């Protein structure tokens, strides 16, 4: 029965090496536990003169140690998976942060353009307000048209007055020429009469 128990727990060298690598991943004493397990297994195999009860107890102890090692190996494997998930989460978080930074940079550029446009609009509004103040001070169109009409009428009156004055002036010139001609004739007549008187 001891031989059958020993045969049932025989493990190949490759399997032992594989489990050794799996259990020695985190450096938390797994190598030492595996060494103790292998040493216990070797001692159990060498105890040929033990009773069947001692062999069974040794077998059960080895199974318990093996289960503990497998449990630790499973925990180590789960820790590795958790680390991988954590690394993946960090990588995803890094991608999200980079994307957010890119979005913020794009938003900043957009806000700068909006600010530039707002400044331009404000400057134009200030110019429009200044122009509106000037326009408000000017008379309205109806009032301007009335004043313009009155001014045109005044110009027409002045033109008519000028025409009349020019006509009167022309008449006075004609009268003056007639008067000068008459004065010259009278002077000539007086000279002739004076000459006749002196001859007598």
Automatic annotation (TrEMBL):
GO terms for cellular component: THO complex part of transcription export complex. InterPro entries: THOC7/Mft1. Its main location: nucleus. Residues 83-175 form a coiled coil. The keyword Coiled coil applies. The keyword Nucleotide-binding does not apply. It holds the Pfam family THOC7. GO terms for biological process: mRNA processing. Keywords: Coiled coil, Nucleus. It is found in: Nucleus. This is THO complex subunit 7 homolog. It comes from Nephila pilipes (Giant wood spider).
